[in-house]
């Protein structure tokens, strides 16, 4: 630590009452008494910090001097962005100074470097008149939204820093001179200290007095000229100026948690006049344990002319300096880099203390500080103040009056009517004991968010408020919580389309399987995902009771570990028949589970797959001939009485490694690289025997059973249109496998392949682009996007929501909750979230998923409303308006490219635009953009055929 007292910093031997370092650290300001008026001087910091700069006559010392105040200046404070300087004095005025390029209307050079001329020019841009007495202290709020001034008129005035000289509120309640004011770093409170022996905490939401603290100040006798209190940068501690404990002067520590007053800083012999916390939260390794410590640092000055430096991690002061001046210490200021402290005294001098990182520690980054704020207070300081500013904004559009802005709800992927449907209430049992589901909602039934009922909370919860204003929510029941998603949305919102009772696996099931035309396929997660602890069966208690009664020999449901078994679950949707109590289940031998290796593995034992009433059974090496061993493939039909009737039988000359069954066809793949396509009713071949370069490891049918696909060991992918007997896609997965292998293959009804690799990444192939599209990987933007936008449990409905279903199979873990508390606290997170959403939209367009396209456009509107910029919002809305909005010819008939520009995947762009605008309504700051584009949208709707024309095309 170094101490330096520059004797050239003075106010003509008059008192210096205040000092403050500019956020850049290049200059500092002092305020006090001038010759015949109040004086504000802006000094160059370089000569204070460097002996060489001090000795160099070409380096100016005084940058500007302003003698505009009519009486002594008691306080000077720089704004957080460094653009403005505020000064308050005995003339009852607060002056706001701003740097100008010319010397018109600014300060006057008086002495120091620069030959009697000001090096910089600072002009008073606003004079704030409102106090009836001397102004003693000033404080800028976080983000410079407001500035508070306190006075001997017993009031605190909060000024609007965006609209000087507008007064936001006058805080009244003190019965004595108010001598100090400070802001909570997250903008929820402002605190003041007065001669009336009290400290008051005021709420910024309604400017009411939230807490009055008197006990530590009851013994205080004669007070000081100023009482500069300070709030710690983490918001946890408020430290007052003059307090008393056992007859001795102290600086009182007030804890935000319960506003407890059981600790104080003791040691000064006379009243404490000023306290100033270091601007940053500091960190360092503990000397003995090497554990990382986070703490705050503060300086305390008193009338005994001594200065003490404290760390909240230590019980004793870091350093104490006695008799630093000849008079009381009146003000303190830390530099933004955290290693320089300036202090001033009533004797007209200042002192500079320079520390090192080893002595004080290292400041936390802004990103880490915002994450800390989010974890402790629920909101980033930036977001909190923006919301407060928006609360005071005048509402110009009536559409914004009835919209709740307190907690905007993100859009949900599953339509609301499906979310609220009970998991069992919509099911019934028919006469044969079958579990029957109602027909699922059609995917095309997409409604604008404006027409949907307001979302209702899924969970019942108890909400309480603590003494410091924080909300605490105690959930009564949180079903099926997902580790990486918010608990309040972590319920399974999908009606299970197949419920298995006692099934062994999809290949050796003891229960017959029947396909219903209206059902959606359900996907079973691979073993890698089950290892993360995600539940594989999401049944409520009623279903579990049905699954266990009556007691039979059915075994618990298991998830297939073989890739062929996973694929059968993925591509052959099924509902399961519950056996009657008097029926005897057929016992079959369970084969040991085989885990995917990327190699073709011969099917062991007896295995079958079914579609509807038809079942295809496979048994390898069952027929011995002089030519070699043959494998049997048998087609059977299961009657309503559970009787099997053989339809056909054929033999294959090579062991079978995988097979799949569709509504009309079955595909059988052998170890000798051959592939056979047969009719499941007759067993006759549909194709001649095909041969690829290596044996197939996965095979699948599309949900409409018109397309069949295989993936081989070497990564060759083939998709055929079976009715047309033609190849639809021929490509290779080798370019994306890079040491991994395919574990899941799905073929959409439009011939779009989706694959999941063993490393967790997933892809889809686009024939138009002749390239693989990345669906999921360990990419940080994708990880952040999937976690940040996970508003419900993993979606497992491959037909209606293919993108979300495939993305739910990544085995990548997200950051821990306590280190990723705020999903948009850092500057990169907003741009990353929007980039991810826009990529999701493009994928949805390529894979033709209209339900998901609408969801991601709605999510884009939600994110833009909360964190977007005006430029980005206009870009998105202009794109949705389309090229046609540039034409004012109302008689023109839209056709060709212009007509295509009006919709995406059959969804009107006007409908998508309505969703985005509905989200903008939750933020008053976007009301003018909302009104502007709503007018354009109304014009387009009128031009296209009237107001009542439906937007869905």
TrEMBL record:
Low complexity: compositionally biased ranges: 414-424
Signal peptide positions (record): none
Protein's organism: Anopheles arabiensis
Main localization of the protein described in the UniProt heading: nucleus
Molecular functions (GO terms): nucleosome binding
Keyword DNA repair: no
Domain CAF1B/HIR1 beta-propeller residue range list: 1-360
Protein name: Protein HIRA
Comp. bias (Polar residues): 503-512
């Amino acid at each position: 630590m170094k101490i330096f007292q520059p004797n050239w910093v003075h106010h003509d031997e008059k008192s210096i009452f205040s000092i403050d370092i500019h956020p850049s650290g290049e200059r500092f300001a002092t305020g006090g008494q001038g010759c015949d008026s109040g004086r504000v001087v802006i000094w160059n910091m370089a000569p204070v910090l460097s002996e060489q700069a001090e000795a160099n006559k070409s380096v100016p010392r005084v940058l500007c001097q302003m003698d505009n105040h009519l009486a002594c200046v008691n306080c000077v404070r720089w704004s957080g962005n460094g653009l403005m300087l505020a000064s308050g004095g005995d003339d009852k005025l607060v002056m706001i100074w701003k740097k100008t390029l010319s010397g018109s209307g600014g300060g006057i050079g008086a002495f120091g470097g620069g030959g009697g001329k000001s090096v910089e020019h600072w002009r008073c841009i606003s004079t704030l008149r409102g106090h009836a007495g001397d102004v003693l202290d000033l404080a800028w709020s976080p983000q410079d939204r407001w500035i508070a001034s306190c006075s001997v008129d017993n009031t605190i005035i909060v000024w609007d820093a965006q609209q000087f000289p507008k007064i936001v509120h006058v805080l009244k309640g003190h019965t004595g001179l108010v001598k100090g004011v400070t802001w909570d770093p997250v903008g929820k409170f402002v605190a003041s200290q007065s001669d009336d022996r009290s400290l008051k905490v005021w709420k910024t939401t309604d400017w009411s007095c939230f807490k009055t603290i008197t006990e530590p100040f009851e013994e205080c006798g004669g007070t000081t000229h100023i009482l500069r209190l300070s709030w710690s940068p983490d918001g946890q501690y408020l430290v007052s100026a003059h307090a008393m404990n056992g007859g001795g002067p102290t600086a009182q520590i007030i804890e935000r948690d319960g506003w407890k007053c059981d600790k104080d800083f003791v040691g000064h012999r006379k009243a404490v006049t000023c306290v100033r916390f270091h601007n940053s939260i500091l960190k360092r390794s503990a000397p003995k344990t090497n554990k990382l410590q986070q703490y705050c640092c503060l300086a305390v000055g008193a009338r005994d002319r001594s200065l003490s430096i404290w760390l909240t991690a230590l019980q004793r002061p870091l350093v104490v300096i006695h008799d630093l001046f000849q008079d009381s210490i009146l003000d303190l200021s830390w530099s933004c880099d955290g290693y320089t402290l300036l202090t001033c005294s009533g004797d007209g001098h200042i002192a500079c203390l320079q520390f090192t990182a080893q002595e004080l520690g290292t400041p936390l980054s802004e990103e880490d500080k915002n994450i800390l704020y989010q974890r402790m207070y629920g909101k980033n300081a930036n977001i909190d103040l923006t919301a407060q500013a928006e609360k005071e904004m005048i509402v110009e559009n009536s559409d914004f009056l009835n919209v709740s802005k307190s907690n905007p709800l993100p859009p949900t992927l599953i339509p609301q009517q499906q979310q609220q449907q009970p998991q069992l209430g919509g099911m019934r049992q028919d006469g044969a004991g079958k579990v029957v589901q109602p027909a699922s909602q059609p995917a095309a039934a997409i409604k604008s968010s404006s027409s949907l009922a307001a979302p209702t909370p899924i969970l019942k919860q108890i909400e309480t408020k603590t003494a410091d204003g924080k909300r605490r929510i105690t959930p009564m029941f949180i079903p099926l919580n997902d580790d990486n998603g918010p608990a309040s949305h972590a319920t399974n919102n999908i009606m299970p389309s197949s419920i298995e009772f006692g099934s062994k696996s999809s290949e050796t099931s003891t229960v017959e399987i029947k396909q219903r035309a209206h059902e959606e396929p359900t996907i079973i997660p691979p073993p890698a995902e089950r290892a993360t602890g995600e539940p594989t069966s999401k049944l409520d208690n009623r279903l579990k009771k049905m699954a266990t009664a009556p007691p039979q020999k059915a075994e618990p449901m298991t998830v297939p570990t073989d890739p062929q078994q996973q694929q059968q679950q993925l591509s052959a949707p099924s509902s399961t028949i519950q056996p009657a109590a008097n029926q005897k289940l057929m016992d079959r031998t369970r084969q040991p589970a085989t885990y995917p290796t990327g190699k073709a593995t011969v099917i062991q034992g007896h295995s079958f797959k079914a579609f509807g009433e038809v079942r295809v059974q496979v048994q390898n090496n069952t027929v011995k001939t002089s030519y070699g061993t043959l494998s049997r493939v048998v087609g059977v039909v299961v009657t309503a009485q559970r009787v099997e009737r053989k339809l056909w039988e054929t033999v294959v000359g090579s062991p079978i490694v995988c097979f799949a069954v569709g509504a009309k066809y079955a595909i059988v793949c052998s170890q000798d690289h051959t592939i056979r396509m047969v009719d499941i009713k007759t067993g006759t071949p549909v194709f001649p025997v095909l041969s690829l370069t290596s044996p197939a490891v996965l095979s699948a049918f599309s949900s409409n059973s018109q397309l069949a696909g295989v993936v081989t060991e070497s990564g060759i992918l083939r998709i055929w249109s079976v009715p047309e007997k033609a190849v639809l896609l021929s490509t290779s997965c080798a370019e994306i496998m890079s040491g991994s292998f395919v574990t899941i293959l799905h073929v959409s009804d439009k011939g779009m392949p989706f694959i999941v690799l063993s490393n967790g990444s997933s892809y889809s192939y686009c024939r138009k682009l002749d390239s693989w599209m990345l669906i999921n990987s360990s990419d940080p933007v994708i990880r952040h996007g999937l976690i940040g936008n996970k508003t419900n449990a993993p979606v497992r409905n491959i037909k209606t929501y293919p993108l979300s279903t495939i993305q739910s199979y990544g085995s990548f873990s997200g950051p821990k909750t306590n280190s990723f508390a705020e999903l948009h606290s850092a500057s990169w997170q907003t741009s990353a979230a929007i980039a991810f959403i826009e990529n999701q939209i493009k994928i949805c367009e390529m894979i033709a998923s209209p339900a998901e396209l609408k969801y991601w456009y709605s999510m884009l509107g939600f994110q833009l409303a909360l964190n977007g910029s005006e430029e980005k919002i206009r870009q998105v809305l202009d794109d949705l308006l389309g090229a046609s909005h540039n034409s004012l010819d109302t008689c023109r008939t839209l056709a060709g490219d212009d007509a295509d520009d009006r919709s995406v995947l059959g969804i009107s762009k006007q409908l998508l635009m309505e969703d985005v605008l509905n989200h903008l309504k939750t933020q008053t700051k976007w009301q003018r953009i909302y009104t502007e584009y709503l007018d354009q949208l109304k014009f387009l709707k009128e031009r296209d055929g009237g107001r009542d024309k439906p937007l869905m095309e």
